[in-house]
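Reference record
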Amino acid sequence: MAGLAGLIASLVTLYEVLIIVRVIFTWVSQDPYNPIIRFLGPITDPLLDATRNAFPFLAQGGIDFSPIVILVLLDFTKSFIMRLG
């Protein structure tokens, strides 16, 4: 069971890194044909869009706080999974 929990925690950590990279790329001009951008969009946008729709006040005023909410929830999920394993 500990091995499965470790694998899931590693996947959650990888997804956290992908979200952080996605956020960093939003700060610079993006080439929509860049393979990294084309990979990150479909991977991270569904969760980001769902968070923005569930909490529309997080994306007001020009600053989008949905990645922060997702990262906190993923970290909580990861710690919960590790306690189970």
Observations:
- Helices lie at 2-26, 35-54, 66-84.
- Residues 2-84 form one domain.
- The chain has one domain: 2-84.
- Residues 26 and 37 are 10 Å apart (CA to CA).
